[in-house]
Amino acid sequence: MFTINIYLRFALIIGGLGLGIGLWAAYGFWYGFPFLLVGIVMLLGYLFLGTIMSANQFLSKQQFEEAEKRLNMTYFPRLLLVGYRGVFYMTQGAVEMQRKDFNKAEALMKQSLASGLPSDNERGAALLQLVLISAAKNNRQGAVKHLAEIKKLTITEQMLKEQVKDIEKQLKQMNQGMNPANMAAMGKGGFRGGGKRPRPKMR
Questions:
Q1: Could you give the C-alpha distances from 139 to 130, 135, 174, in angstroms and in order?
Q2: pTM for this structure?
């Protein structure tokens, strides 16, 4: 999806609104209207969509600090559209997963589910991360619970389906002495974390 550089967007917001209001005051509304329109459209796009798409471009390249900085430029996450709000918290959770801060990642993934996600693919990806987190904490019961929730969803992404199957096999091996850290490490290729699975499309 095409994205506008956040700094260019801010410049267009400030420039459009400032120039539009100035021309309106000096010469009349219709002189300032085109610039006002550009500024308002850019502002609404920022408020409703945030910086999620550009953050994910950094995340897909394993540039986690840059991704976090870009996410932090979404100053009003509660104003994001419902689907984007959930993906915003989910992306934050993916960053924390890479840092192995499983407590933060777990809280953010749960917040993403509570905030709303665009489709079962995104919900399945968030729940899959919760499975991995539970496994890392040696909480097999929690991992099984989240896996059962995934199976109730209608997942259409083939790579996500394969990941779910792989994780299910790993869970069965946990009782046979598998190190949960090995299972958690599989999360590096999970949602928005890198190369094994493409980012789900926003609908």
A1: 11, 6, 10
A2: 0.80
